[in-house]
């Protein structure tokens, strides 16, 4: 089953009297076990597409199913639960909590799901080992390099074992060698599980080499969506 099935997505923003069409009939089907990058010019609608797939935004029209769930049918509470449990988010600036250690940051999604940090510690340590940071579990973000912080964020995104990871410019704040290592890790994470999709918006020229598929967004439409 496809992890993402988007059909004819339109997203309009009202700016005073003007209507901005960020997405203009975007259709896309994506299977699991893949690392897919989304490219295209600035303002093309890439972030809008990612936000709709992550249930952070809703389309003006069109249909969107992610991991078997029709996102349009979700109440606000259900959408927030969907985001917490079913999607992993990875950001350009990592978004780690500075006062928490690496393992506590990784365990945070469980805390938000009413489970104690301590109970989640073994799993958090395991995930940090998975991303090559078994020796940094008690470090705080300020004691880590940019690449290490992004690895912590990737471990955190896996805490709830989601079928979809969404990354918006995850290497945008890293040097090219560190960025290439992070891309390699994201590819491994996608290929670890035949049901898991890693979907990444990027300008990184190295991405095409490690991604299984590249989709291009242009003027709110998708080339190569199927
Ligand atoms: P990209 O990520 O490809 O650079 P975006 O998805 O951020 O593009 O934006 C697509 C278009 O929609 C742009 O013209 C942008 O200005 C507009 N847009 C995005 N978000 C909003 C918003 N919240 N309000 C109004 N216009 C928006
Ligand atoms: Mg963007």
Please provide a written account of the structure:
By secondary structure, this protein is of the alpha/beta class. It has one domain: P-loop containing nucleotide triphosphate hydrolases (Rossmann fold). Helix content is 32%, strand content 27%. The chain has helices spanning 46-53, 76-86, 102-111, 121-130, 146-157, 176-192, 207-210; strands at 4-15, 18-30, 34-39, 61-66, 69-70, 87-90, 164-168, 197-201, 213-218, 221-223. Strand 4 (61-66) and strand 5 form a beta hairpin. Adenosine-5'-diphosphate is lined by residues 13, 15, 20, 22, 40, 42-48. Magnesium ion binds at residues 46-47.
Helicity level, as a percent range? 25-40%
What is the number of domains?
1
Instruction: List the strand order in the largest sheet.
Output: 6-7-8-3-9-10
Small molecules bound: adenosine-5'-diphosphate, magnesium ion
End-to-end CA span: 14 Å
Q: What overall geometry do the principal axes of the alpha carbons give?
A: globular
Based on the structure given, which CATH architecture is correct? 3-Layer(aba) Sandwich
What is the structural class?
alpha/beta
Kindly estimate the percentage of residues that lie in beta strands according to DSSP: 25-35%
Q: Catalogue the unreliable spans.
A: none
* Strands, total number: 10
| CATH topology (fold) name | Rossmann fold
Number of helices: 7
At the first level of CATH, what is the class?
Alpha Beta
Query: Any idea what the CATH superfamily is called?
Result: P-loop containing nucleotide triphosphate hydrolases
């Amino acid at each position: 089953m496809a992890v993402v099935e988007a059909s004819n997505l339109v997203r309009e923003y009202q700016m005073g009297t003007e209507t901005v069409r960020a997405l203009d009939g975007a259709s896309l089907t994506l299977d699991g076990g893949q690392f897919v990058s989304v490219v295209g010019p600035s303002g093309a609608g890439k972030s809008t597409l990612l936000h709709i797939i992550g249930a952070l935004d809703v389309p003006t029209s069109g249909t969107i199913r992610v991991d078997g769930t029709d996102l349009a049918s979700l109440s606000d509470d259900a959408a927030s639960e969907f985001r917490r449990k079913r999607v992993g988010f990875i950001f350009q600036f990592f978004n780690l909590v500075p006062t928490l250690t690496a393992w506590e940051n990784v365990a945070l999604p469980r805390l938000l799901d009413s489970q104690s940090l301590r109970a989640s510690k073994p799993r958090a340590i395991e995930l940090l080992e998975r991303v090559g940071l078994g020796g940094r579990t008690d470090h705080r973000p300020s004691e880590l390099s940019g690449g290490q912080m992004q690895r912590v964020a990737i471990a955190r995104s896996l805490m709830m074992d989601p079928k979809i990871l969404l990354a918006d410019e995850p290497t945008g704040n890293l040097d090219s060698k560190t960025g290439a290592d992070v891309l390699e890790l994201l590819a491994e994470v996608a290929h670890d599980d035949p049901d898991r999709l890693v979907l990444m918006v990027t300008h990184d020229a190295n991405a095409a080499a490690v991604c299984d598929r590249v989709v291009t967004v242009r003027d709110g439409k998708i080339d190569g969506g199927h």
